[in-house]
Structure formats: structure tokens, C-alpha cells
Design a protein that fits this description.
This protein is of the alpha+beta class. 34% of the residues lie in helices and 25% in strands. The strands form two sheets. The protein has a five-stranded antiparallel beta sheet with strand order 1-10-9-6-7. Strands 2-3-4-5-8 form a five-stranded antiparallel beta sheet, covered by helices on one side. The mean pLDDT is 94.
Length: 271
């Protein structure tokens, strides 16, 4: 497995809350959730959380023992939570948390695990691509935001309803009727989306954080086969460059999204 990756902070002067790293045969990508108010809950911050959790995951994967990916993640969440439970309010719904994407080549198969909304792009032998993600947060967000439909933005009523919607979404984190994300509860690892594919059916695999996946949606700069093609020519940095160039073009548009941390990993599998 040959691995290359690139990452870019969304805004100057703020730490990059994504994490990406690799050990022989395995790759990890985390997208930290920079939730307003988290600074008052955790003295370390979201970037610390993603780097601590990501480093612990790489340590577990480096053993190359074929252990279940969910078990590796559960232990890493527990170890990271223990590292700051005494000093931080990690039980609060807004305390540092992260999406998790893991991929590992082992015994002729590529195993993967996704927790929350990052993207795994499988480059299939024969020319097709298959995209894997965990849409539970998107579904929960859409359901919780439903009361805002038809309400005029930038009005007291809108602000009041929006605050209620935000509270409702936070209450559904790591709950059976909501969505799951790496935070303080190891149980979340067992709720992750997992899968396995024969290595001889794959040319490679790509991993994108939410900020990088904007190249497809909502920016519409290309489709998922196009992402594979960009990676083949320009590598992970080429995907991020296209995202940033588009964001520079729409800078100042009141409807434009705030640039997010963007990270891409690309794994080419040896024949």
C-alpha cells in the first residue's frame, strides 16, 4: 500500500482540527467537530482531541494483528477520554468529538470503518467507483432543522427556533435515534459503519474529510469518478486546491459556506 495525503486548515489563525496518519497497511482520517463553546468545556481543544485519538488509533493499528477495527476504536476512545476526564467536562454534548475513518489491508482484504460523515471512495478494478459514508448525522440534522422551514432568517423568531433545533441535534449525539461520533463513550465504536472488500477487486482507496468532500457536494466541481481522476493526476493536494480556489471565487457571498478544514488521503494498492 502506497499512501499520500494532504491537509489544509479552513481559516488562518485557527488550528487544523482534522487528523490524518498512516502505518504500514493502514490509514486513519479524523474530522474534528469545532463546536462553539467547546473551549469552555475542555482545556485542550478539538485539535488536541483529534490528534490524541488519531495517534492512539495508529498505535493500535500498527500491531497488524487483524483485531476488529471497532475494538481498536473503542479502546482508543476510552484511552483518550481517560486522558482528560479529570480536567474537562467531557460528558457535555458539545465537548470535543470527531468523525473517524479507518482503512486497513489485511489478509487479502481491505477492511474499513466509518463513524459520522467522512467519505471513503473505492477505486474498483474495471473502472467504477463506490462511495461509502455514514449519513446518520445528515439525516438527524435535516430532521432537527425541519421547524425552520418557511421561517424568515435574521428574525427573532428564526433565532429562537434555530436555538431549539441546535439543542435537539446535540441531544441526538450518540443516541439510538440519532447519530454516532467519537467522543467520550467507547460504545460509539460499535455503532460505526464497517465493511470489507477483496484487495484484488480494488486499484486503491481515497479518504476525504467533510471539508474536502465539498468538491462534489455542495460545490459540484466534479463527481466521485472525477475525484478519482484528480487524485490520479494531481494527488490529494489537487482536490484541496480545487476546493480552495472555488471558495476564493465566492468569498464575500453571504450565502457561501465558511471554509472548513480539508483533508484527503489516497492509497494505491500494489498489484
Amino acid at each position: 500500500m502506497h499512501v499520500s495525503f494532504a491537509t489544509s486548515a479552513g481559516r488562518a489563525g485557527r488550528p487544523n482540527e482534522d487528523f490524518v496518519g498512516a502505518v504500514p497497511g493502514a490509514v486513519v482520517l479524523l474530522d474534528g467537530a469545532g463546536i462553539p463553546g467547546a473551549e469552555a468545556l475542555c482545556a485542550h481543544g478539538v485539535a488536541w482531541y483529534t490528534h490524541r485519538l488519531g495517534g492512539t488509533l495508529l498505535g493500535g493499528l500498527s500491531r497488524a494483528d487483524g483485531r476488529d477495527l471497532a475494538a481498536i476504536l473503542a479502546d482508543a476512545i476510552a484511552e483518550t477520554a481517560a486522558a482528560h476526564r479529570a480536567t474537562c467536562d467531557i460528558a457535555d454534548p458539545s465537548s470535543p468529538q470527531a468523525t473517524v475513518l479507518m482503512a486497513r489491508a489485511h489478509r487479502g482484504r481491505l477492511d474499513h470503518l466509518l463513524l459520522a460523515d467522512s467519505y471513503l471512495v473505492l477505486d474498483l478494478v474495471g473502472g467504477g467507483v463506490r462511495v461509502v459514508t455514514d449519513e446518520r448525522e445528515l439525516v438527524a440534522r435535516r430532521e432537527c432543522a425541519a421547524p425552520l422551514a418557511g421561517v424568515t432568517p435574521a428574525t427573532p423568531e428564526y433565532d429562537r427556533i434555530r436555538a431549539t433545533c441546535v439543542a435537539a441535534l446535540r441531544a441526538r449525539r450518540n443516541q439510538p435515534d440519532g447519530y454516532w461520533i467519537a467522543k467520550d463513550d467507547p460504545q460509539a465504536a460499535w455503532e460505526a459503519a464497517t465493511g470489507s472488500h477483496p484487495l484484488d477487486e480494488l486499484n486503491g482507496v481515497a479518504m476525504l474529510s467533510n471539508g474536502a468532500s465539498r468538491i462534489v457536494s455542495p460545490y459540484g466541481l466534479t463527481n466521485w469518478p472525477g475525484v478519482r481522476d484528480v487524485l490520479a493526476v494531481d494527488g490529494p493536494s489537487g482536490v484541496i486546491r480545487r476546493v480552495r480556489e472555488f471558495e476564493d471565487q465566492v468569498r464575500g457571498d453571504p450565502d457561501a459556506l465558511v471554509p472548513d478544514d480539508a483533508t484527503v488521503a489516497c492509497c494505491r494498492l500494489a498489484p
